[in-house]
Amino acid sequence: MSENSEEAPKEEKRIEKAEKPEKRKKEEKGIYTLYKIENDKVIWLRPTCERCGPGYFMADHSDRYTCGHCGFTRYKPAEK
Ligand SMILES: [Zn+2]
After folding, report:
1. CA of 47 relative to ligand 1 center, distance in Å
2. Is residue 2 included in any domain, yes or no?
3. What's the rounded Cα separation, in Å, for the pair 72 and 57?
4. DSSP string across 45-79
5. Are the CB atoms for 59 and 49 separated by under 8 Å?
6. 48 or 29: whose pLDDT is higher?
7. For a disulfide at 33, which of 29, 41, 74, 79, Cβ 3.0-4.6 Å?
8. Residue 64 CA, ligand 1 centroid: distance in Å
9. 2 Cα–ligand 1 center, Å
10. What is the distance in A from the centroid of ligand 1 to the CA of 40?
């Protein structure tokens, strides 16, 4: 067989710029993912911002919550 083990072809070293990365966040499920109803009680799955008041939900991070509205950060209580 031929000894052309790994010879990279020297052609078309052009990278297309018009590529659209389809990286859409899948967090747009609506408000129904923010709470659930148990025994006629609404249980919010996310905390609301203490500064902005109810209605402003804070983003859930691994160790903290942040408010996208005012930037308030609240660290989760260290458990475990
Ligand atoms: Zn806020």
Report:
1. 11
2. no
3. 11
4. SSPEETTTEEEEEEEE-SSEEEETTT--EEEPP--
5. no
6. 48
7. 29
8. 14
9. 67
10. 28
The Cα 52–Cα 44 span in angstroms is 16
Range of 68's domain? 51-80
Give the Cα separation of 64 and 50 in Å (integer): 14
> How far apart are the CA of 27 and the centre of ligand 1, in A?
19
Instruction: Give the number of domains in the chain.
Output: 1
The model's pTM:
0.45
* Distance (Å) from CA 46 to ligand 1 centroid: 13
How many CB atoms are located within 10 Å of the residue 34 CB? 13
Flag the least confident range among 32-41, 43-52, 66-75: 32-41
CA of 26 to the centre of ligand 1 (A): 22
